[in-house]
Amino acid sequence: MGENNIAVPVICILLVFCIFFSGCTEQESVNTTKSANALRAEEQGVAAENVIDANNMFAFDIYRQIAAEQTEDENIFLSPFSISSVFAPVYEGARGDTADEIGSVFHFPENTGTLREDYREINEKINTGDPDYELSIANALWAENTYPFLESYINITKEYYSANTTTLDFKNHPEETRLTINNWAMEKTKDRIQELVPAGMIDIYTRLVVTNAIFFKGIWAKKFDENNTLEANFTTASGEIVKVPMMQKTAAYDYAETDELQAVKLPYENETGNKLSMIVILPKENELHSVEETLYFKKIREVEDSMGSETVRLSLPKFRFETDYMFSGILKKMGVVTAFSDEDADFSGMDGTGGLYIREVIHKAFVEVNEEGTEAAAATAVVVQTIAPPPGYSLPVYTFRADHPFIFLIEDDETGNILFIGRVSNPLEN
Predict the structure, then answer these.
(1) Quick one: which of 19, 209, 240, 295 has the fewest CB in 10 Å?
(2) What is the 3-state secondary structure (H, E, C) of the chain?
(3) What's the CATH superfamily of 6-218+320-368?
(4) pLDDT, tens digit, for every residue of 193-243?
(5) CATH number for the segment(s) 226-318+373-424
């Protein structure tokens, strides 16, 4: 694979600190429309039957929260599966209200056995790999070398979440340990994520750092021809017109359309591993806010289920950008409050006492999309396109022109697991 393939390295890090830090802020409310409230009522706090449904419900929950706090001209990109994956071993150590809040916000299955076995199976499948793309996920625990974590907790995180525990001297060498964790992040993301943990974040009170990294690099099953990429106008949410490199292709894609949006699925090449695709959701002009406000797992699944193979005249901008989030405030607003309180947090499942709480949740991500593909993908596209219609019948051609803000997902087609979710508000924003 060439260097210009789509690359999506993401790492999420959760920092669990001891009692000496200050508590959390008050929870804030967010205004929504009646339709959004109706959808929320169906999914809010609902325990999913499996980890994939749980992750997908959480994906849209946190996306909506981020979108509500950012301006519409800001890009969004994150891995909900990375965040839920890092919270699963944390949830194993939570008790009482702390566990209830985490379980509710992340929609974790009520059956602990289901939670553990699902994560173990999903992670093993992700790391199986495929000759045509790179996809990997890794978990790690970094523990203060003098702190008495329960052996049972360490064993559970290793057995079910493949999280090996490394002991570090946070008290005497906080800067060295920070660099050790950052080097791990660089290795797992092929140097895409650097300086993950900022200076000063680790100090003498640090007791545990839980990290997750997920990396994806794939090629389109139906590649774009670089010669067809043209400079075109892209209108941002604020109405500013910017010139962007717009990729062009007419081919058969899974496609659906409603009164408020268009959706198209772009598959990645695969040989033996999971089938992965990017789903691009293009709101009708001036409909971004209303689409985002009612962006729920159930709604997107209905759109996906209605997709059929159609000839699509696709225009999609090239884009590349990075994001950097501190998620403690957002997670508090979503309902994870007690875990951030130095007085009320209960992570006694980690150490047998009540002295730990979460200080911060750091999430960094990088995404790049361009024309790259493979010869085999082009051959597959030709086979699909050579199905001839009956004499005298003309197949409809649907125009999908992403020249204004759009939402995109990268998911596993076989399981429906959403690995990444984002919004392109300005393709030129880095």
Answers:
(1) 240
(2) CCCCCEEEEEEEEEEEEECCCCCCCCCCCCCCCHHHHHHHHHHCCCCCCCHHHHHHHHHHHHHHHHHHHCCCCCCEEECHHHHHHHHHHHHHCCCHHHHHHHHHHCCCCCCHHHHHHHHHHHHHHHCCCECCEEEEEEEEEEEECCCCCCHHHHHHHHHHHCEEEEEECCCCCHHHHHHHHHHHHHHHCCCCCCCCCCCCCCCCCEEEEEEEEEEEEECECCCCCHHHCEEEEEECCCCCEEEEEEEEEEEEEEEEECCCEEEEEEEECCCCCCCEEEEEEEECCCCHHHHHHCCCHHHHHHHHHCCEEEEEEEEEECEEEEEEEECHHHHHHHCCCHHHCCCCCCCHHHHCCCCEEEEEEEEEEEEEECCCECHHHHHHHHHHHCCCCCCCCCCCEEEEECCCCEEEEEEECCCCCEEEEEEECCCCCC
(3) Antithrombin, subunit I, domain 2 (3.30.497.10)
(4) 778 888 888 888 889 999 988 888 888 999 999 999 999 999 998 899 999
(5) 2.30.39.10
